[in-house]
From TrEMBL:
SMART domains per UniProt: S_TKc
InterPro entries given in the database record: CDPK_Ser/Thr_kinases, Kinase-like_dom_sf, Prot_kinase_dom, Ser/Thr_kinase_AS
The keyword Transmembrane helix is assigned to this record: no
GO molecular function, one term: protein serine/threonine kinase activity
Organism lineage: Eukaryota, Viridiplantae, Chlorophyta, core chlorophytes, Chlorodendrophyceae
Name of the featured protein: Protein kinase domain-containing protein
Amino acid sequence: RGAFGVVKECRRRDAPSESDSCAVKIIYKNKLETAEDVQDLRIEVDCMNRLGTGSLNCISLFDTYEDDSAVYLVMEIATGGELYDRIKKGAYTEAMCADVSKSILQMIAQCHAKHIVYRDIKPNNFLFFTKSLTSPLKGTDFGLSVHHPPGSKPLQDTTGTPFYMAPEVIRQKYSYECDLWSTG
């Protein structure tokens, strides 16, 4: 459950098996209180579309639907839980930390290659694809991401999660490098 809606596990009616499950993020329109909220949703969808489907380190957006009450984002499902929850359990080896770091940096590289500044790198925004200890890790929640083409002026919005926020974000003059700082 987020500020604007919920995420539910779904399956197409004609899907032959459980493996065809997907996640549907339901954003309730009555929770989008300002024009800025609506614009942020559009930017989130745009960023996910730019990344495309089949990304190794980002949750894929398959489709979007809209009715009078909500917007529905149909996405790849990841059932292994948040990185944050696994970190809380402890007992990460150096090799496991290296794998996690590599996955996060690959996700950042994929975003930056498409001129997307993610702006909210934190353990809560990374999901394991399965419950396996060797599961792939995927970035999700592109709600604060923004398309930032080469040659653009530095970004100035102070956005992100304070504990993970780069100093240049607080100074309101930043670009792609803020994602690397937040990685830690």
